[in-house]
Amino acid sequence: MKQNKGLTNLEELIKNMDPILNEGEYVFTSVSDLNLIPREITICEIKEKEGVTIVLLKTDAEKLGLSFDYIASWITLNVHSSLEAVGLTAAFSSELGNNKISCNVVAGYYHDHIFVNKKDKDRAIEVLQNMKLKL
Question: Residue 8 phi/psi, 5° resolution?
Fold first, then answer.
């Protein structure tokens, strides 16, 4: 199956990015045995030497008795960005940082996903929307 590579032009990416706030509260946790976690509940997984970091709904983490210390909101940039695009992550993370909003970024094949502290979710959406106005 041939896949579309997505946009690479930074100005087009910013102009067309449509930040969407996904419902729910999300947490990051680390597990030593991924086989103990139902795979259908994980948003993403990354293997690290200390364990496997997973992102999942807070309610699912609580049901499984997993520990966490950061509750996030999940924003999807609804523009098909190429994995070869240069500057998009730097642009939005700098803009969020300039507004004192920390972000944790995960790149999927089609979209970039940003996890921000849940208390900052509305301000983060506003900052991301305002980036388009600055072009």
Answer: -120, -20
> Domain containing 52 — which CATH number?
3.30.2130.10
Task: Tell me the HSE value of 86 on the side-chain side, using a 13 A CA sphere.
Answer: 0
List Cβ neighbours of 72 (8 Å cut-off, separation of 6 or more).
25, 26, 27, 28, 55, 104, 115, 116, 117, 118
Structure tokens at 21: 């706030």
List of residues 6+ apart from 101 with CB closer than 8 A: 116, 117, 120, 123, 124, 127
Contact predicate 112/52, CB 8 Å: no
Q: Quick check: 1 pLDDT over 80? A: no
The pLDDT, as a whole number, for residue 61 is: 98
Domain count along the chain:
1
Tell if the pTM clears 0.85, that is, is over it. yes
User: pLDDT tens across 21-73, in order?
Assistant: 999 999 999 999 999 999 999 999 999 999 999 999 999 999 999 999 999 99
